[in-house]
Design brief:
The complex is a heterodimer of chains A (193) and B (162). Chain A is an all-alpha fold. Chain A has 6 helices and 1 strand; from the N terminus they run E-H-H-H-H-H-H. Helices cover 76% and strands 2% of the residues of chain A. Classes of the chains: A mainly alpha (193), B mainly alpha (162).
């Protein structure tokens, strides 16, 4: 039995989870500002390369698919740990981290390719707003990967189990959030002309 | 969160629960929608569909994907309504603020973005405030809570681990 005190919160929900949702709300504002900046500068570059010159939609679609599937493995990890299947939970957590790493690898390849085509942060308004927006997202995914690996390690050490699976749920909320933000970025930045 | 460290017991049970099968179905649906988005992009590139129609279709599909991930993977559909109300109202207000800013900068040539915003915001708010049974934390994870040692304490339903 847990030796920690349990208490009734004013809202009837866990403070930690409410805190994570509040944090995600502030993240909406951050990414909203970056997406709005990209939209504001879109089509205003006076010199190339322009989006149509550099985008590789099939490649980015594959990356997006990988990130979407990482959300699936994340929710399967939470489900496994909640029912006491810690070993399978860790496998799903590490799978999620690997899928996230693949996405980041794809982003590094994409950035390298774009720089090779002459698009840098300083080239034009498109380059500045594109790299800041997708770069910030990439940093969030990287932090998420570190959180996933730490969670898998804590589970392996026996510190995370079905009795305190909320820790996994909170990491999962963050991970799903970076996924939904990418859903918006992929459509607004890459697909809509 | 309770900081409980227990010796790892060998798990005996199914590899996938009923919830997991639903999650896999949702993941498959998301993959299909992504494929449709890419097809729409290619179709517009070939000039088979107008840019406006394509933009609308892509925005609607993106919104559907967003709602599906938030509802199922982030558990907003079954979790305590306070989370989805907070998230949807916050997102709607943020969307309004940024749309107003972009309009002030003269980014939009038509009212279409505002119409799209109103449709998405109203649908989101309607879903968030839809009446349903009040649920406490983890109410959707019955399978996890059956063995929770604190159930023996006879605490009120709204007590949560801290």
């Amino acid at each position: 039995m847990s030796t920690e005190a349990h208490h009734v919160t004013a809202t009837g929900v866990s403070n930690e989870k409410l805190g994570m949702w509040t944090f995600l709300g502030s993240e909406c504002l951050l990414f909203g500002a970056l997406i709005a900046t990209y939209l504001n500068y879109r089509g205003k570059s006076i010199n190339g390369p322009y989006p149509k010159d550099v985008y590789n939609i099939p490649f980015t679609s594959a990356s997006s698919f990988i990130l979407l599937m990482s959300s699936l493995t994340m929710v399967l990890a939470l489900s496994a740990i909640q029912r006491g299947d810690n070993r399978r939970g860790r496998i799903w957590l590490i799978s999620t981290a690997l899928l996230g790493s693949t996405f980041i690898g794809g982003q590094i390849y994409e950035f390298t390719d774009f720089v090779g085509k002459g698009l840098t942060m300083k080239t034009n308004l498109f380059g500045s707003s594109f790299y800041v927006l997708t770069g910030f997202h990439g940093v969030h995914v990287t932090l998420g990967i570190l959180m996933l690996l730490a969670t898998a390690f804590l589970s392996w050490k026996g510190k995370i189990n079905k009795y305190n699976a909320e820790a996994v749920e909170i990491v999962g909320l963050y991970w799903h959030f970076v996924d939904v933000i990418w859903i918006v970025i992929f459509t607004v930045v890459y697909l809509i002309k | 969160m309770a900081n409980v460290q227990v010796k790892e017991e060998e798990y005996v049970g199914p590899a996938l629960s009923a919830h997991d099968k639903q999650y896999i179905g949702v993941g498959f649906g998301l993959a299909v929608i992504t494929a449709v988005e890419v097809v729409l992009y290619s179709v517009e590139k070939n000039g088979d569909i107008s840019a406006a129609a394509n933009t609308w279709a892509l925005l609607v599909l993106s919104f559907i994907k967003f709602v599906i991930v938030a509802a199922f993977f982030m558990h907003l559909k079954t979790d305590n309504p306070i989370f989805r109300r907070m998230f949807v109202v916050g997102a709607a207000l943020a969307g309004f603020a940024y749309l107003a800013t972009l309009t002030a900068f003269g980014v939009f040539k038509t009212w279409v973005p505002w119409v799209a915003y109103l449709v998405f915001a109203l649908v989101g708010i309607a879903l968030a405030f839809k009446k349903g049974p009040a649920k406490t934390d983890h109410a959707d994870h019955d399978h996890a809570d059956h063995d929770h040692p604190d159930h023996d304490l006879g605490e009120p339903d709204h007590a949560v681990a801290h």
